[in-house]
Amino acid sequence: MAAESNLNNRADIAKILSLDYAFKFQGQIDKILECLGVTEKIAMKEGDQIKTYSATVTEGSTSIAEGDVIPLSNVELAANDPVTITLKKRRKSVSAESIQASGYEEAVVKTDEQLLRTIQKGIRADFFTFLATGTGTAEGTNFQTALANAWAGCQVAFEDDAVEVVAFAHPNDVAAYLGAASITVQDVFGMKYLTGFTDVKGVFLSSLVAEGTLIATAVENIKFAYIDINGNLKEAFPGLESDESGYIGIWHDAVSSRATLDSVFMSGATLFPEILDGVIIADFTE
User: Fold this and answer.
1) 8-48: per-residue pLDDT in tens?
2) Which of 37, 196, 205, 233 is the most buried (most CB within 10 A)?
3) How many helices (H) and strands (E) would you count in the chain?
4) How far apart are alpha carbons 173 and 207 in whole angstroms?
5) Contacts of 259 (CB under 8 A, 6+ apart)
6) CA 246 to CA 225: how far, in whole Å?
7) Where are the domains of the chain?
8) 245-248 LR contacts (CB < 8 Å, sep 24+)
9) By C-alpha distance, which of 278, 265, 264, 272 is closest to 44?
């Protein structure tokens, strides 16, 4: 007897599961971008280069006699070594025996979620590696003074009193401050996010920041670049599912010759600071 019309088969379920993960990933990316204040999203292709800059300002004299020619000030942007954006691919394979023994939810869904968290962790790690190359400096005697001085350093670096600042610190360094502070704590993209600091949009906590160090920069200095999965990749691999953002592609495929169910994740998303001397690294000792 033929199957009923409109039957939801395994291929349909795999597509739904892939799209569900893609939407979740987009939601998590959009949330961290919103918290960071990032508005610029740059769609790139495999092999494109991310360029960062350092600025050198040489000011002309500001004491000018009435009627004299105003000397020129010079701003030189020096390009740093470019970073090539690459498509990162991950594959997980689950055997029929594992699915039979543990159930589909345990063997496939939960392990897929763990792999998705690993992808997020990789994006965070790359971002903090970028931040650590910042060339701006500040000092403080404790967390509070370091944060204040880093905020001031960002104001000077971008010469804009209206600039918003975000900071990044190790959880242990902030712990002593939390007890006496009136702040709000949220979770975003695998990090604690604290709001309520004077003149600072927020402080993100991560063990990827060295203890005794605080990093700050202007929200306008943080960019988001990604390889758009929608387009050539989806055309070449019809089973690759992505949402409208194109941040990530996910493919669930049953391999009959091995009796396995494969999960393939493709993404090239990265966060980076554009102006490195606008990244202020503040050292302090409690």
Assistant:
1) 445 555 677 888 889 889 999 999 999 998 988 999 988 89
2) 205
3) 7, 17
4) 10
5) 95, 96
6) 11
7) 10-41+88-284
8) 245/26, 245/29, 245/30, 246/43, 247/22, 247/25, 247/26, 247/29, 248/21, 248/22, 248/25, 248/26, 248/119
9) 272
